[in-house]
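TASK: fixed-backbone design
INPUT:
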């Protein structure tokens, strides 16, 4: 397995408010063929007797490959990723698993920071609005 440079921002992405990776990225980072990763995902889906769980954690999508052909890949949640790579073994696989989990944590932290920033902005605006409303109410009482 050839370890490549880890960039958390490339390993995982934010889709809606869900941190995801793809079967393509898993194949790339683990040095596997995408065909083999797809086979593993499909086997997990088949073996899991909880369709709702697999639909939430393994979402198929189509992409155009380098030959211009339409191919299938999967978006994976953190849980889908962990379930998939549990079977990947070896020292390199362990290091890549750790880096991926750190990437998921990093992206979740970025989302949390963003949400907190938006909440602070909202609270500041509401406080300003309330102060202005109170000032206008006081002016009306004086008039």
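OUTPUT:
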């Amino acid at each position: 397995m050839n370890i490549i440079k880890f960039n958390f921002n490339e390993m995982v992405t934010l889709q809606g408010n869900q941190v995801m990776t793809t079967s393509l990225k898993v194949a790339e980072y683990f040095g596997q063929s995408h065909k083999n990763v797809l086979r593993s995902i499909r086997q997990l889906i088949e073996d899991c007797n909880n369709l709702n769980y697999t639909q939430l954690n393994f979402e198929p999508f189509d992409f155009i490959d380098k030959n211009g052909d339409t191919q299938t890949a999967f978006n994976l949640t953190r849980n889908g990723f962990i379930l998939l790579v549990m079977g990947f073994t070896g020292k390199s696989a362990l290091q890549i698993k750790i880096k991926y989990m750190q990437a998921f944590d990093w992206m979740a932290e970025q989302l949390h920071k963003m949400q907190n920033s938006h909440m602070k902005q909202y609270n500041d605006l509401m406080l300003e609005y309330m102060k202005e409303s109170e000032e206008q109410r006081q002016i009306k009482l004086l008039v």
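COMMENT: The first strand starts at residue 13 and ends at 15.
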